[in-house]
Each structure stands twice: as C-alpha cells, then as structure tokens.
Amino acid sequence: MNIEYPKEIVFKCNHCGICCGDTEQKKRHILITARDAQRIAHYTHQSILKFAYPVRGKSPYIYEMQKDSVTKKCLFHLNGKCKIYSHRPLICKFYPFQLTTEHEKYTFKITSECPALHSLDAHCEGEILSERYFKRLLKVAFAELSSGDVAKSPR
Q1: Cα–Cα distance between 118 and 100 in angstroms, integer?
Q2: Which one of 30, 112, 128, 153 is most buried, by most CB atoms within 10 A?
Q3: CB 40 within 8 A of CB 84
Q4: For residue range 90-134, what is the model confidence (pLDDT) as tens digits?
Q5: How far apart are CA 87 and CA 39, in angstroms?
Q6: What is the pLDDT of residue 152?
Q7: Which sign does the torsion angle of CA 58, 61, 62, 63 carry?
Q8: Helix, strand, or coil here: 67?
Q9: CA 128, 153, 19, 16 torsion: positive or negative?
C-alpha cells in the first residue's frame, strides 16, 4: 500500500472546537457520507434533513452538517463537547488531517489551523503519530466507504 503521511508530529486534542465550526479565518464545511448521515439519524432519532443538507460534487460526501446560526458550530457541538462523538462523521475522525487519493496512493495532509498538532521537537504531550496510526485511519475510511466509493481495501 502506497501511503504518505506527515512525519514526526504529535497530536493531543485540546477540545478547542475549531474543527467543529466556522472561525474568523475559515468557513468550515463538515461533509458527511450517506453512511454517516444514516448512523447519526439512527443514533439521534432525527431525520437526516434535521441536521444536514444535500450537497453535490463532493463525492463520497453527499451531505453537509448544519451549523447553529449563533455559534456557527456543528449542531451537535454543545457546551464544548461533541454530543455524537462515538457516531461522528468520517471527516471528523480524520481531523486534523485530510485524505486524498490518486492512482492507489493515499496521502494524508495536515489541516494547518489545528492548535493541538505539533512537531516532535516541540516537546509537547500527546501521541506521536506513526505509520500505524495513519494505516488505522485508512482502514476506517475503507470500512466507512465500503459501498464502492473506494475501489480497493488495504491489505
């Protein structure tokens, strides 16, 4: 499997919520797959259109999470916590990284605005992210997208 990922970085979520909504610098698009939407709808006992709206041209994502009109955060981000954390969307599981694929090469890129991501030489607390960590993320993606959105599963 051809995988590229950031080396020598440390991550420990500080629960700042930047990933959960808009900031002055960036409008956040929390995109969700059909499977994400169904899982969240089942867990929350809500129809999908109560928390998301359809989007086009963002495959494999077909919905975008709605945000609170006042806080500009995801509807499920309440009192500094994710109320659906164990059922959160794939894009949230990947944060602070984005996965791109091209010709069976999987590339994880850093989402630069996350304040909880540091270089190894910064001597910060947290998990040192290794190839194993990124392979686990990739397996999560294949499991989530097993409906044919991704051609092959990693071995």
Answers
A1: 21
A2: 30
A3: yes
A4: 999 999 998 888 888 899 999 888 888 888 776 677 778 899 999
A5: 7
A6: 35
A7: negative
A8: strand
A9: negative
